[in-house]
Amino acid sequence: MKEIEAKDFDVKKFIADCKELHAEAVVFSTRAVYAFYDTKINVEQKSTLMGNRDLLAEVINEAEANNIKVIARLDFTNAPRKYFDQNPDWFHLDPGRKPRPSPYDHSDRFYQTNLLGGYQNDDYALPVFKELLSNYNLDGFHLNGAGWRGTEYDESMIKKYNIPTDKEQLKPWREKMFSLQLQRYHSSILQKSNAILFMGETNSIETSGWGYSRGYNPELMAKGFTNILSTSGEPEGNLLFRFRWWVSLTADWLHSANAPGLPIINLKTNNNGSQLTMKPVLEYQFYAFQALAHNAGLKTPTMGLLSNLPDGRTKSTIKEIFQFMEQQEQYMTNVVSVAPVVLIWPSASGILESGEVRNFEDDLRNQMFGLYSTLAHRHILCRLLNSNNISSDKLTGISVLILPGTEFLNNKSVISLLDFIETGGRLVIIDHPDSKGSFPTLPEKLTGRLGGIWTNEALNSKYGVPREKLMSLADNNLAPVKFEVAFRKVTPDKNAEILLTDSQTPDIDFFPEESVNLEEGKNPILFTQKMGKGEFVYFGGSFGEIIWKEDFPDFQTILEKMIYPDIKSRWLLTDAPSTVNITAYRNQEGFVIHLVNETGSVPLNGIVPVYNLKISVREKTAKEIRLYSPGKMPENLIFNPTGEMLEINVPRLDAYAQIIII
Fold it and tell me: Which of 118-127, 508-517, 615-624, 627-636 is predicted least confidently?
């Protein structure tokens, strides 16, 4: 809510608009630089535009009468500059004791506060929580824009709070201190009730920079928040065209942080920061449907009261999505992913056995994008598991585990991984050099079990040459592939089967008469090895990064065959194009399969329907199978049990649909 909207605020109209949207809850601006309730704390911060009214109390009363929950939005990151002289420690101080002006204030009225100072803790924030919990019947809190204000500090701050000056120590320290602050906030909430939602924001997967500046680490934040929220669906420039499943990836990434509640996607209705122009309607819907398909909730900031919005499309766009969520709630909550493939997502930070703190995520960013994009495009049902959670109990029920690097392996995780393979699992390791260009030393428990000779030496090759076994796995013959990243020098065990080798043949020249024959090298890049009931698959270096850089179908085919050499082991098969994203979940009644269609222009201004889409799932029987789509009546689908599979025909897919198997 803009402050000007507090004047003559029509509460009944506001709640009526929310009810018309089929909203479950409203996030109401309660306290930031202004308070919109009857506070006794720093009374001068009460908005003068609301007069003697208590807008929060009015909103709660009207919302309760309409079965809508109320979440109080709080923001302690900025404070009036008039407090600076008396309480300079409340504020973030850059070197030279310079307070940092609010980036949203052009009149120099507010300064940014200090995460460790009194304003964000005992002197102000915690009393605000206590006051609101004591006087108002709230269903939750939304903590806006929390975290650190910068990465540089005045000497007085460094001394007072023992801030590490070593950059490698500073990052985990900042993340830890922010997490402890969230846990203090949550503890104050729990004194009132353990059923109150407490959500707050981390960065999205496509915008990691500001997450670093704020000290965000989703795994640590999950210890404080009940639900982690991320503003996603705002890729800029090349990212908008390079990959379209940003909300899907962000939702899966938030799931891997293991917060108690579902992740929430903060999907803005406005276009590229403009508060007056809405996103293309179908583009907005496309990202919203991704959130639903990846088991995440939606928060949709409208940048003002609906009655004041200049773009008349906003209301109808949100309404259709929320109404569908309400209708399908029984199929979208209390569900469990049936994805048999797990991609290990690097922790935002990890501690090696040597005690060194390593920022894995930035090192492996492109590697992860390439791997995830292949899984999405090839309809390989997958979920993410945080690298800090590699343990036997977390690997139960998984068929294939993809590890995007070896630097976060330790003896404990290796034991779990070896047990996983021995009992029938398929472990795919895609190695990755460290920041210095060499490969980390592998734990002896792993190399001892694998046999062969494993070095830390990095090799280079011009091409990767497929061996006969890999050629036969592919639907079509594979050509030699361009290979311009480092790979680990390995002499595998004699029982290993080499699928791809290097080639030192020089780059083929433009002139055909000067071209040379491609020669197979002696160094393996990709090989497999049977172990117990399972199999170990190893790729020597940065394959995901190659996929992300080259975006060539042969690379995706190689990865797909590394995961599934035999289609008989797949739970879901489909002839859907790569522009359709598919996820699947199990509930008490059966299964729900989500289909999100992006076939069309970028950004979307018209969906191209997909007709007669075929899907087969590895289930023997079903009572009925129905198709649900927003704005349409449910449709019974024709299905055919054949052996171990159910064959399902979808006559037409528009923007989004759910297949419900009972």
Answer: 508-517
Q: Any idea where the domains of the chain sit in the sequence?
A: 3-77+114-331, 341-567, 572-661
Q: What is the pLDDT of residue 587?
A: 92
SS3 content of the chain, % helix, strand, coil (to 5): 35, 25, 40
Among residues 638, 583, 661, 612, the alpha carbon closest in space to that of 381 is found at 583
Q: Could you report how far apart the first and last alpha carbons of the chain are, in Å?
A: 43
The two counts, helices (H) then strands (E), for the chain are 19, 34
Banded model confidence at residue 108, pLDDT cuts 50, 70, 90: confident
Structure tokens at 210: 């500001």
Structure tokens at 416: 């779990």
pTM over 0.85, yes/no: yes
Long-range contacts of 326-335 (CB under 8 A, 24+ apart): 326/22, 326/24, 327/628, 328/628, 328/658, 330/587, 330/589, 331/587, 331/592, 331/628, 331/658, 331/660, 332/292, 332/295, 332/592, 333/262, 334/587, 334/588, 335/295, 335/585, 335/586, 335/587, 335/592
Residue 20: how many other CB atoms lie within 10 Å: 14
For residue 307, give the DSSP letter. Answer: G
- The CATH code for residues 3-77+114-331 is 3.20.20.80
Q: Is residue 487 a contact partner of residue 438, using CB atoms and an 8 Å limit?
A: no
Query: Does the pLDDT of residue 275 top 80, yes or no?
Result: no
Cα 66 to Cα 12, 18, 59, 603, distances in angstroms: 10, 10, 11, 37
pLDDT at site 435: 73
Tally of CB atoms within 10 A around 413: 21
pLDDT at 357 over 60: no
Closest of 380, 440, 387 to residue 417, by C-alpha: 387
* CATH class of the domain comprising 341-567: alpha beta
DSSP code of residue 394: G
Token look-up 């850089």 returns 549
Q: What mean pLDDT comes out for the span 304-319?
A: 86
Quick check: 267 and 296 in contact, CB under 8 A?
no
Tokens representing 249? 């990836």
Query: Cβ neighbours of residue 24 under 8 Å, at least 6 residues apart?
Result: 68, 69, 322, 326
Positive or negative, the Cα torsion across 304, 310, 312, 317? negative
- State the fold for domain 572-661: Immunoglobulin-like (2.60.40)
The angle formed by the CA atoms of residues 234, 105 and 122, to the nearest 5 degrees, is 95
- Please give the C-alpha separations between residue 524 and each of 81, 453, 460, in angstroms, as whole numbers: 64, 12, 12
- What is the model's pLDDT at position 114? 96
Residue 92 and residue 100 in contact, taking contact as beta carbons nearer than 8 Å: yes
